[in-house]
């Protein structure tokens, strides 16, 4: 199992442990990620799930996403679907939101469910805050997120893609962003899986970024950020032990590379606290994190 597959599998296991999905659904999603029943059962147990004999006789349905009553930031500007040339003759898909008077431009990377309405909304909110934004669909080469029957299949497919392809597609997206934004300074943000992708691009000799804000994303193994000049604001959640285990390594890599950086841990919240369509959403922390993110871009992109 690759590091990204392991991360995605652990996310499924923790969703079950936290009561967001029933055991049967967790096993289905783990099977899509390539885990047989013994390995899936062992992973659930290792992450704190009770044995099947101790579980309720009937599984409860998966948790219903909370309504987006108070998403962080301003009302989003509209996004439009776009395509642009990717590596090796491919065509990549994205959602584009243009700021009225852009102060910079931001690449947005989605969570493990692909390019969703929530991520499009984040791009629109950044545009409303003055930063034209391009939200890349990392499943473009498979036809795009919308072609998958459900989010679990999209997640499983992301787990089959290697880091080199992710990096190549994100670099192509930065090129498209530069063209559309008229050459202004570039920033980047990503959430969960997308936070990990942000760390990955920072570790991939990408000199065009001036600022990056990864949200609770896992750090790649042996991360080397000497090839970037970006100022990095890392967002973490206090109740996210799995991702927080890489926080010290991120601090060390940023310091070694001599990058301007700040790592902020929001108290009393868990993984994915920024996603206003999810059960872990915390409106107060999300609003504060949005302001920190925009403030970071104001300092390093304007």
Automatic annotation (TrEMBL):
Keywords: Hydrolase
InterPro entries in the cross-refs: AB_hydrolase_fold, Dienelactn_hydro, Dienelactone_hydrolase-like
Signal peptide stretch: none
Region (Disordered): 50-84
Biased composition (Low complexity): 50-72
Pfam families, A to Z: DLH
PANTHER family the UniProt entry points to: ALPHA_BETA-HYDROLASES SUPERFAMILY PROTEIN (PTHR46623:SF6), CARBOXYMETHYLENEBUTENOLIDASE-RELATED (PTHR46623)
Name used for this protein in its record: Dienelactone hydrolase family
Organism: Nonomuraea gerenzanensis
């Amino acid at each position: 199992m690759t590091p990204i597959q392991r991360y995605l599998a652990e996310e499924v296991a923790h969703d079950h442990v936290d009561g967001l999905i029933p055991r049967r659904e967790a096993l289905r999603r783990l099977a899509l990620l390539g885990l047989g029943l013994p390995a899936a059962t062992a992973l659930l147990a290792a992450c704190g799930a009770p044995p099947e004999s101790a579980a309720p006789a009937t599984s409860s349905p998966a948790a219903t996403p909370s309504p987006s009553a108070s998403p962080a930031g301003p009302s989003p500007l509209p996004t439009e679907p776009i395509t642009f040339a990717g590596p090796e003759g491919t065509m990549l898909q994205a959602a584009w939101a243009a700021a009225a008077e852009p102060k910079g431009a931001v690449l947005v990377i989605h969570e493990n469910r692909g390019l969703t309405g929530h991520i499009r909304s984040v791009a629109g909110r950044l545009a409303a805050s003055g930063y034209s934004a391009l939200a890349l669909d990392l499943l473009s080469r498979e036809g795009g997120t919308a072609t998958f029957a459900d989010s679990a299949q999209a997640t499983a497919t992301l787990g089959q893609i290697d880091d080199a392809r992710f990096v190549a597609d994100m670099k192509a997206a930065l090129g498209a962003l530069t063209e559309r934004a008229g050459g202004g300074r570039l920033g980047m943000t990503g959430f969960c899986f997308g936070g990990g992708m942000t760390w990955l691009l920072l570790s991939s000799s990408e000199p065009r970024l001036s600022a990056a804000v990864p949200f609770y994303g896992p750090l790649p193994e042996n991360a080397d950020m000497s090839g970037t000049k970006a100022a990095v604001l890392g967002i973490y959640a206090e109740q996210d032990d799995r991702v927080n285990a890489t926080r010290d390594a991120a601090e060390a890599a940023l310091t070694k590379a001599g990058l301007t950086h700040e790592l902020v841990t929001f108290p009393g919240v868990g993984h994915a606290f920024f996603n206003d369509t999810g059960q872990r959403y915390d409106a107060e922390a999300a609003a504060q994190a949005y302001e920190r993110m925009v403030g970071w871009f104001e300092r390093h992109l304007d």
